[in-house]
Amino acid sequence: MTLTAAIHDPRADPEPDGWADFTARCKLHAVWDYGLMRLEAWMSRNPAVLGVVRDGDRIAAAATVLICRPRRARYADAPTRRKARLRPRWAEVYTPWLSGYPAVVFDPDLTGEGRRAAVREFERAVLRHVGPGLLGIAYRAVYRDMVSSMTGPLRRTWRNDPTSVLPNEWPNEDGWLAGLSKERRTSIRRYARKIDRDPTLEVREGWGRTDTDPYEVAALINSHRARLGRPRTDPRTEVAGVFLAEFLRRPDVRLLTYRDADGTLLAVNTLLDHPTSTVLQHWAARPPAEGGRHNLYFDCYLRCVRHLVSAGRAELTSGRGLMDVKASLGFRARELHTVAVPRPSVGRR
Amino acid sequence: MAMRWRRGYLRVVRSSFATVPFYRELWALSGRTEPEVVPGRTGVDGGAVRAAALAGRVGDLVPLAGGPTEIDPLRGLGPVLAEHLAVTAGTLVAVVDPGTPRPPVDLPAGVRSCVLDPSGLAGPYAGVLDDVTDHLRRGARVVAVGGDKDLDQLAAALPETLAHLVTRVPVRDPDDLAAPVGPHALIAHPLLGVLGGLGGCGRWHIDHPRVYLRATPAGPAYTLLRQRSPRLVDVLAGHGRPGWCPRHGTPVVEP
Ligand SMILES: [Zn+2]
After folding, report:
1. Considering the domain boundaries, does residue A223 fall inside one?
2. Interface list for chain A against chain B, based on CB atoms closer than 8 Å
3. pLDDT of A101-117, one tens digit each?
4. Is A329 domain-assigned?
5. Is residue A331 situated within a structural domain?
6. Distance (Å) from the C-alpha of residue A241 to the closest C-alpha of chain B?
7. B188-219 pLDDT, tens per residue?
8. What InterPro entries does this protein's entry cite (chain A) (predicted)?
9. Domain limits for position A118
């Protein structure tokens, strides 16, 4: 086995050979689409690049890595060919809009020692790409069974907030509801009926929708995120409308919108489909003080579970945070870890 | 002068590409010229923006660090009046406009202002009209700014003996600069605000400390050099092309 690694900057480099084949083989979610990564990277403070490790010609592993820098209120500089940059940078191995999934993906045939070797090759490629200013690499949202591929001397591992997962164990949505507390079950049914009968509320859902202004959706998502207060360590930028314009028209993305009688967008949700692990991705709502409605959140979950059971997917994931509420909806915690690699350990075993 | 003017513009372009979502998207993905910000990507219309393309996108004109979203259609009124009409303390600036939401905010110190809706001069704006009349009776200077028809309505509502004492400053849209006007006039645009005024030389002078003008394949494009947010860069407006006034040595727009 001879492993080689390269970094592809979606803003400047063409799609890696064999990328479509790899994403299909590893069943990667839509956010790994190279064209979407390109839009995302241009609109980022800390743009994501794609690390690709090959065994011969065949892609054996890949990672999305954000090249981060301290300044917050600025997009990244356009890519240049200049080398040996001394400016401080660190690398976050992280999928910006899929925070509950690892950003390192291995070919299913790559095992044990091969994975550890692929990770080191990838790290050396990151070091070459960033230059001597690289402070270190942090792997975010790593599953427990992957941690051993990344650990080693000087490297630190710790547990983060878990992500939430609802395994599909029912033939229909009633089966799901039956497993919830009586209180939660009745309230979900009551909200659903109320929303259904409310003539002042327009609810629309559909795959690949092109009937909605993506900038309007982005604005609601961004104001929702801003209201929750983003941690200073969040390396992501605001969601860009131009990204959503491409994303929402995909056939594996479902957009759910709630609008007022006057057309005001009250809440949105994106559901990202997948052969096994469907994602309840964005949820954003206008606060009640600004005309928003209560309890649309639960209606959204009902609609997502409905897809989970009717399409027969194995699980629905719903990201991090609000674990109490999600537990009341049947979600379980899935452990996530961070592995931090200081500069002296980058690329070493 | 020309160099410094251009340097100020280049700074705004670079900063907008680095911090303002709207321009980041447009120039990174499509491109622009003079200057290019992504080598080889030249975009459409040199990267200039049609005002209609900004509808519903004002939030994306705010830099990432945050800032206001209000559009002020009278932005720049004060400096342009001071430059071309020597408006000084004691003057009353009367804005006559059916749509003006608020009085001008950048008038020179000691200059008062009022806003009149021409359709309400006998109704809700009667008190304001009285104020204008008092000013004229006292012999104080009144500068009336508005569309030609709006200014006519104001003149008709004032006592005949006083109406001619008002300094008329008609406002022209950038696509309406060819029609005869004089001796005073302003160029104003609903998004960009006041862009310049008619000089004593008869040329349309750009308010160059605050406004940059550039020729593009789609026509003249204006940039606000000092408005951080909402950022307005290379907004296409009207016809004509940039030039220099031989008498004053400063930038003009030639209809
Ligand atoms: Zn002149």
Report:
1. yes
2. 11, 39, 42-43, 45, 72-75, 77-78, 213, 215-216, 219, 237-238, 240-242
3. 999 999 999 989 999 99
4. no
5. no
6. 9
7. 999 999 999 999 999 999 999 999 999 999 99
8. Acyl_CoA_acyltransferase, BioF2-like_GNAT_dom
9. 3-160+336-345
Nearest by CB to residue A75, choosing from B18, B29, B59, is B18
- Predicted pLDDT at A84: 53
Confidence of residue A80 (pLDDT cuts 50, 70, 90): confident
CATH label of the domain that carries residue A279? 3.40.630.30
Please choose, from the candidates A106, A125, A102, the residue with its C-alpha nearest in 3D space to the C-alpha of residue A116: A106
Q: Do both A314 and A295 map to the same domain? A: yes
Q: A238 with A299, same domain?
A: yes
Three-state SS annotation for chain A: CCEEEEEECCCCCCCCCCHHHHHHHCCCCHHHCHHHHHHHHHCCCCCEEEEEEEECCEEEEEEEEEEECCCCCCCCCCCCCCCCCCCCEEEEECCCCCCCCCCEEECCCCCHHHHHHHHHHHHHHHHHHHCCCEEEEEEEEECHHHHHHHCCCCCEEEECCCEEEEECCCCCHHHHHHCCCHHHHHHHHHHHHHHHHCCCCEEEEEECCCCCCHHHHHHHHHHHHHHHCCCCCCCCCCCCHHHHHHHCCCCCEEEEEEECCCCCEEEEEEEECCCCEEEEEEEEECCHHHCCCCCHHHHHHHHHHHHHHHHCCCEEECCCCCHHHHHHCCCEEECCEEEEEEHHHCCCC
Kindly report the average pLDDT of chain B as a whole number: 95
Phi and psi torsions of B86, nearest 5°: 50, 45
Does residue A315 contact residue A165 with C-beta atoms inside 8 Å?
yes
Which pLDDT score, from 0 to 100, does residue A228 have?
86
Q: Which site among B24, B26, B30, B69 would you substitute to test the A interface, given the most A Cβ atoms closer than 10 Å to its Cβ?
A: B24
In a shared domain, residues A219 and A231: yes
Q: Output the six-digit token pair for A167.
A: 């395994």
- The reported pTM is 0.93
**ipTM confidence:** 0.92
Report residue A81's pLDDT band, with 50, 70 and 90 as the boundaries: low
Residue A92 maps to a domain: yes
Whether the predicted pLDDT of A321 surpasses 90: no
| pLDDT for residue B50 is more than 60 | yes
Please state, as a whole number, how many other Cβ atoms lie within 10 Å of the Cβ of residue A81: 5
CATH code of the domain containing A19: 3.40.630
Give the Å distance between the CA of B182 and the centre of ligand 1.
14
